[in-house]
Amino acid sequence: MRNLPKDFIMGGATAAYQAEGATMEGGKGPVAWDEFLIEKGRYTAEPASDFYHQFPIDLELCEKFKIDSIRMSIAWSRIFPNGFGEVNQEGVDYYHSVFAECRKRNVMPFVTIHHFDTPKTLFDNGDFLNRENVEHFVNFAKFCFEEFTEVHYWSTFNEIYPVATNQYLTGAFPPEIQFDLKKTVTCLHNMMWAHARAVNIFKENNYEGEIGVVHSLEPKYPASDSPEDLHAAMLDDALSVKFLLDATYLGYYSNSTMDAITEILEANETSVEFDENDFIEMKKAATRNDYLGINNYHSHWVKEYKGESTLHYNTTGKKGTQVYKIKGIGERIKRDDLPKTDWDWIIYPEGLYDLLVRIKQDYPNYNKIYITENGMGYKDHFEEGIIMDEPRIDYLRGYFNSISRAIEDGVNVKGYFIWSLMDVFSWVNGYNKRYGLFYVDFETQKRYPKESAYWYKLVSETKTII
Ligand code: BGP
Question: What's the ipTM?
Answer without folding.
Answer: 0.98
